[in-house]
């Protein structure tokens, strides 16, 4: 690995039970969650003596992780120095892989997004050439961002489907029994890599950066081409026993006999996803239903999901009708989630969420109709405020949290 080895050596000591290394990791965690503060305030928050905190913060400054920002302004009296994470101690790259594009983000050590590259064309497939193309795009993006490879402490990559982030295997894309995908990527990219399910990463991005107001139980619905959820319980990502939680799209929901991508019949995804919107629209266009999409469909035999969403924004009657139909089924399923989990907040993100109120009104109507009022009355259902950045931010933040052993 070309990654700066200060992090790895520091974390190795912590994992071996070195007391000072463990406390220094706690100090970094406190700066991450509480922001910059004086040594006295840090001492009080952590329940440690000021001399101990002073010594360890001094070591973290020498190691490049913490920065002395100088005197803070006060209303009077002696002004203490303000300390916090050094934003240039290292960087974390987030890679959000979708069916036909990939987006990139780069955060500094303090978690600020400093670079963002949106929707670079890419065709995701279960092939070696597709993996090679992804690695080439990552290499080109790092070069374009102008950050030395050794300063990138970790790369977080989101993929749809079954992803076991603990073992580093993706069972839906780029699977090989020989070695985990993370190992293949690390050998190719020369940097520490972790992978995550796209919906879980989106949930983490929303939780960390999306304006959650102290909610600790949050469900993020990723309604794009497919359908998945990320679950935050008691402030922590919920993975499930085997690491595959969140396969909401494959809940057996319909008696429609439609074969899902997973090979089962009647999955929720077959009637409540971007894929469902696309299929229903194409069926109706083939039957001769009038729409501003008709001309393109007649000429090519297909329309894209983005074409459909654009038609929604232009108030095309057929596009609105289909999105509302799918949104009703989605809302009915969300009502079930509310009845089971009783969350404080449900966030709807992903490509289909750009339909805005056309989607939300139908979702909220179904939630009101099918959820238990006593359970749902304290649950807020809203659209993502991060839009397309949620997945990228989640990948970045998870790369940082996992590298620093904070999750």
Question: What would your notes on this structure say?
Answer:
- The chain has helices spanning 5-15, 19-34, 39-46, 50-62, 128-145, 181-189, 198-209, 274-286, 294-300, 305-313, 317-341, 357-370, 373-376, 389-403, and strands at 66-71, 81-85, 91-97, 101-108, 113-121, 152-159, 163-164, 169-170, 193-197, 218-223, 227-233, 236-237, 345-349, 380-383.
- By secondary structure, the protein is an alpha/beta fold.
- The chain folds into three domains: 5-85, Winged helix-like DNA-binding domain superfamily/Winged helix DNA-binding domain (Arc Repressor Mutant, subunit A, Orthogonal Bundle); 91-203 and 391-403, Nucleotidyltransferase, domain 5; 213-384, 2-Layer Sandwich (Nucleotidyltransferase, domain 5), CATH 3.30.420.
- It has a five-stranded mixed beta sheet with strand order 5-4-3-6-9, sandwiched between helices.
- The longest helix is centred in the C-terminal third of the chain and has 25 residues, at 317-341.
- The radius of gyration is 23 Å and the shape is globular.
Share in β-strands:
15-25%
Helix fraction bin? 40-55%
CATH-defined fold name of the largest domain: Nucleotidyltransferase, domain 5
CATH class of the largest domain: Alpha Beta
Count of helical regions: 14
| Secondary structural class | alpha/beta
Q: What general outline do the C-alpha atoms trace?
A: globular
Which short descriptors sum up this protein?
five-stranded mixed beta sheet, 3 domains, 407 residues, 14 strands, alpha/beta, 14 helices, Nucleotidyltransferase, domain 5, Arc Repressor Mutant, subunit A
């Amino acid at each position: 690995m070309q990654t700066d080895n200060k992090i790895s050596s520091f974390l190795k000591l912590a994992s071996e039970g070195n007391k000072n290394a463990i406390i220094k990791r706690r100090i970094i965690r406190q700066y991450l969650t509480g922001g910059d503060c004086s040594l006295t305030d840090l001492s009080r928050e952590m329940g440690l003596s000021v001399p101990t905190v002073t010594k360890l913060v001094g070591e973290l400054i020498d190691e490049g992780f913490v920065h002395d920002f100088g005197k803070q302004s006060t209303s009077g009296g002696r002004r203490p120095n303000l300390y916090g994470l050094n934003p240039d101690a290292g960087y974390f790259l987030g890679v959000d892989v979708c069916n036909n594009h990939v987006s990139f983000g780069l955060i500094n050590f303090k978690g600020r997004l400093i670079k963002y590259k949106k929707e670079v064309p890419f065709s995701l497939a279960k092939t070696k050439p597709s993996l090679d193309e992804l690695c080439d795009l990552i290499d080109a993006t790092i070069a374009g961002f102008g950050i030395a490879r050794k300063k990138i402490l970790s790369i977080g990559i989101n993929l749809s489907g079954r992803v076991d982030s603990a073992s580093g295997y993706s069972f839906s894309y780029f699977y090989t029994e020989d070695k985990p995908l993370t190992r293949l990527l690390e050998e190719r990219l020369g940097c520490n890599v972790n992978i995550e399910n796209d919906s879980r990463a989106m949930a983490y991005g929303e939780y960390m950066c999306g304006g959650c107001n102290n909610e600790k139980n949050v469900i993020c619905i990723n309604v794009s081409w497919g359908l998945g959820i990320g679950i935050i319980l008691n402030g922590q990502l919920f993975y499930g026993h085997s690491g595959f939680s969140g396969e909401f799209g494959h809940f057996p929901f319909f008696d429609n006999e439609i074969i899902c991508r997973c090979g089962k019949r009647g999955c929720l995804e077959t009637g409540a996803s971007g894929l469902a919107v696309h299929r229903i629209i194409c069926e109706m266009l083939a039957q001769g239903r009038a729409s501003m999409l008709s001309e393109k469909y007649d000429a090519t035999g297909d329309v894209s999901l983005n074409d459909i969403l654009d038609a929604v924004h232009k108030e095309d009657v057929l596009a609105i009708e289909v999105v509302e139909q799918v949104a009703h089924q989605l809302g009915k399923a969300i009502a079930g989630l509310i009845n089971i989990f009783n969350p404080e907040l449900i966030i709807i993100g992903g490509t289909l969420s750009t339909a805005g109120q056309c989607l939300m009104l139908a979702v909220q109507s179904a939630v009101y109709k099918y959820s238990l009022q006593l359970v749902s009355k304290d649950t807020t259902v809203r659209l993502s405020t991060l839009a397309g950045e949620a997945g990228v931010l989640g990948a970045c933040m998870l790369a940082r949290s996992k590298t620093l052993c904070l999750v």
